[in-house]
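Q: Convert this sequence to structure tokens.
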Amino acid sequence: MTGVDYGVVVVYLVFVASIGFFVRSRIKGLEDYFAAGHRVPWWLAAVSHHISGYSAFAFVGYASVAYTVGFNVWTLFALPCFLAMMLGAFVWAPRWARLKVITPVEYLEKRFNRPVHQLISWSGIAIKFVDEGMKLYSLGIVVAACTQLPLNATIIGCGVVAILYVMIGGLWAEILTDFSQFIVQFVTTVILAVVVLQAVGGWHSMWAQLPAGYGGLFSEQYNAAYILVFLVVITLSYNGGTWGLAQRFYSIGAPRDAKKAALLSGVMYLIYPLIIYIPVWASPLVLGEIAAPEESYALMAKTYFPSLMPGLLGLFVASMFAATMSMVDSDLNALAAVFTKDIYQKTFNPDAPEKTLLKVALLATAIFGTITIISGLMGEMMGGAFNAMMQWYAAILAPVSVPLLFGMLNRRTTWRGALAAWFGGFATFVLLKYGLPAFGVETSWTVFTGGELLVTFGIFYAEGYINKLTPEEKARVDELFDQIAPQE
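A:
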């Protein structure tokens, strides 16, 4: 990168930081800090939800898949996200808005009981650090490839900035930053896609020059069974299993607006990845074989942007930084919310005043951010961004997410079913991923993740037909369902 590029990065980051300081005045309490006062416009929440599902991971983790298997990445990533959000628009998004919560798990105590609430809170925080760390690792890959800065130093620097930013402005700062960085990212990705297509002779010419099968909807590695299981995981994640994405829905005031936000986000997921991965698909034609497929998008940007306009490469790097910072900040904010309201206040200090809770939230953000940085530094050790995300976060999301999301759909299941589903899901994961291979029976991601999903869902729903809610529990659950049920 040139001096102009670095200058653009600095200017952009100063602009992003100014947003955080600007919205600081909006934060009057925990509701503003963690839920933006439930006043976010639906279109802004839609853009924020959409862009929060990308980060640099889409340009590193999924880019490595796009480079390896071609168009199959659209079937693996874009199509499941679209289908998940079409379902979520009618099922979960409006219910999140009706809950009027500050944290995504706080309603679980009313729906089940305090032990379930605490178990989901603690375990949800624990598994999230893999996801967070791989986002920072992905950002480090992009920045290091474009600037030649050391990878680990980049991860640490980006993580520190992300921590400071979310401590300043809360959820409002993240959402407003999402919108600004989406505009910048969209412009840079469209420019690169157009230039690359011109260089390789157009869309049809690009696919004609690539190996046979590179344009197929499925591949040997990511076949229909794999994608079906992944669709279920994505549905859980993007509709609230990833807590930062649930925030985008319950930060909206009206349920009908939450529905519109989910629909718009889903449509963008269907279309935008086609633009993003054009440079990756064309990279073998332009650069030849790339030793590290995770760097394919960054290397294409580095090849074309400098000759197009001074500072354009810097703008791309800045947009990747802002995208990842926003997504990491969103999740850190959600984690801090859960720890502050659902763990600290519920368990350790029920009478804590709001000022004390805000201080706890800031401290929790700093601590969780530090753990995220450590996780990011372990990216290479864990086999790269995509492998780590799939083998760990995606694979163990179900036991935490099923009680959270389906607890607001199924009123039969008791607290026993939620606990049993949690334990059964994790036990199945351990058995299929580690137990059977210890005896020489190898299992694939599809098998151990699909098996865990089946057991978790099966236990959760079956238990409701075995045990019955007590009259007191039934009254409490009925009251909750009256609150979140679709209004005529």
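Residues 397-488 form one domain.
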